[in-house]
Specification:
Helix content is 42%, strand content 33%. By secondary structure, it is α+β, with helices and mostly antiparallel strands. It has one domain: Pantoate--beta-alanine Ligase, Chain: A,domain 2 (2-Layer Sandwich), CATH 3.30.1300. Strands 1-2-3-4 form a 4-stranded antiparallel β-sheet, covered by helices on one side. It is rod-shaped, with a radius of gyration of 29 Å.
């Protein structure tokens, strides 16, 4: 009787196809997560810039003796992000209350932030 031993030094085509499928899935997931991370970072950067723009205007209004009571939206750019900023001033009892709204677009959606505070 002769014993024959098979030499299995190579890979079969099925093993190669399974490996390619796994690599493709991992690559697609990595790209998807990277895109999501980029969108989240972009949204956060735009929101921070809008908050700073609103805070800056609120501070500016509080330093003026007779601030303008309201405005039509003004266009400003911070970190290459176009924003629209407007404000209103209301008299609440003996206190003037300013509200500053900043609208911006990030990752294809429009958002806004509003800050309010007492002035003068």
């Amino acid at each position: 009787m002769e014993n024959s031993v098979k030499n299995s030094a190579g890979s079969s085509i099925i093993e190669i196809l399974i490996t390619l499928v796994i690599i493709t899935i991992i690559t697609a997931l990595t790209i998807s997560f990277s895109r999501s991370s980029f969108n989240i970072m972009s949204d956060t950067r735009a929101k921070d810039a809008a908050y700073l723009a609103a805070e800056e205007k609120l501070t500016d209004l509080s330093t003026k003796a007779f601030p303008v009571a309201s405005s039509s939206p003004e266009t400003i750019t911070i970190d290459n992000i176009a924003m629209y900023r407007s404000w209103t001033i209301d008299n609440v009892n003996t206190i003037k209350r300013a509200s500053v709204t900043v609208s911006y677009s990030a990752s294809g959606k429009t958002s806004s932030i509003t800050l309010s505070g007492a002035i003068n």
